[in-house]
Amino acid sequence: MFLNKLPASKILQKSRQNPLQSLCFPFANPPYTFTQKSGYVDVYMKWKKDSYYDSIEHILNSIQLKSIISFKNCIAQDPNGCIPISAVSKRGLEMGVSMRVSRFLRLYPSIFEEFTGPLYNHPWFRLTPKAAEIDEEEKRVYQNCREDLICRLKKFILMSKNNVLPLKIIQGMQWYLGIPDEFLQNPEVNLDGSFKLVTMEDKLEGLAVECDEKFMSVMQKNAIKKGVYSCGTMEALEFPLFPSKGLRLRRKIEDWLMEFQKLPYVSPYEDFSHLDPNSDISEKRLVGFLHELLSLFVEHSAERKKLLCLKKHMGLPQKVHKAFERHPHMFYLSLRNKTCTAILKEAYCDKASIERHPILRIRRKYINLMKESEVILKNRRFGNGLAHREVLVDLDLDAADGDEREIPKC
Fold first, then answer.
1. What is the pLDDT of residues 206-235, one digit of tens each?
2. Residues 125-129: contacts with CB within 8 Å, 24+ apart?
3. Which residue ranges does the record assign to the PORR domain (predicted)?
């Protein structure tokens, strides 16, 4: 798909120059090339920064928020509603925290309240009233949107080659899918009868879906609403494009993109084994897969390196990450937080086209608490500075020499 190919005209020209080669290959274009042709165009553009996507709060704070909610769950699940620091001090790497856990928890005083424990004067932590209130609301959202979350998980598994994925892969995508921990801790009880625990070839525990229901992608649903799609076999369907300001494509790339839009659309829930992996149709199927995948995610974004673990089980090409670079009108790559995050533009430019995940509102409330923590810490530093200045002033006034000193203005 992403390998350089020579145009047919150049192949024919070379065959004329070499008669021996023309005898071996009498046809410049074999019949099968007309079925799934590949008009590869090398799409390479300098990365263009877009402040709009770089400043989306729930994406910008996603890494820290994931760790915060993991620790929050540890505290909320405890029968006493509080835990000693020793219970989580050695789980920093597991929770995605590179610093000391106690230091991390103290960075968010509006979420985690510290107090002295009953034994050995160890620091203990519990949730603040505001955090506990949001936690209860989060539980209600999970309960009310149970069917929707199960459907999202089902779609995610049905996008795989054999309708089965290892549990560790699903757990790695759990944050993006917005699935609560208890769903995967006991799937036989929390999920419906279409899910089944299986043992995969490499002796990994997997979760399979047996379902006769045919799902439609977000692309297909929106096209049907607009009256431009009738669910026909190999029917063309154009992707919605959202160019960033100042991002211009070369004429050759624009022409290729217009032809690419006219190619048949293959749903990520359909069998694609008959497609030539080096054809443009296969690339369009890949772009449609990434579009549907990011549509299922809470933030409609994901760290690009985290998607690489899906290659084997989803049947993706080796250089799947290149698809984001080749289609900048659909995806944006944010380089904030020392990582590369792939963002689906349509979710933020046309909010009516993609359903908003029910748990996103809860995450935004936690982010507001994170902001409150910054204010609290800033006030503490400012207060300590004022106290320190007052001590210095008193010492100066009590000095034996009686010299008046001017207090510097802040």
1. 999 998 888 999 999 999 998 888 887 778
2. 125/75, 125/82, 125/83, 125/85, 126/75, 126/81, 126/82, 126/83, 127/72, 127/75, 127/76, 127/81, 128/369
3. 48-374
Q: Are 356 and 47 in contact (CB under 8 A)?
A: no
> Which contacts of 49-57 are long-range, i.e. CB under 8 A and separated by 24 or more positions?
50/244, 50/245, 50/332, 52/348, 53/332, 53/334, 53/343, 53/345, 53/348, 54/334, 54/336, 56/299, 56/343, 56/348, 57/364, 57/367
For the chain, give the mean pLDDT.
83
Q: Which residue, among 87, 95, 70, has the nearest Cα to 122 in the 3D structure?
A: 87
pTM tops 0.85: no
Burial class of residue 379, CB neighbours in 10 A (0-12, 13-18, 19+): exposed
Give me the amino acid identity at 224.
Answer: I
Q: How far apart are alpha carbons 76 and 127 in whole angstroms?
A: 8
pLDDT at 181 over 90: no
Within 246-310, residue ranges assigned H as helices are: 251-261, 280-296
Alpha helix segments (H runs only) across 164-264: 167-172, 174-177, 181-185, 187-190, 218-226, 251-261
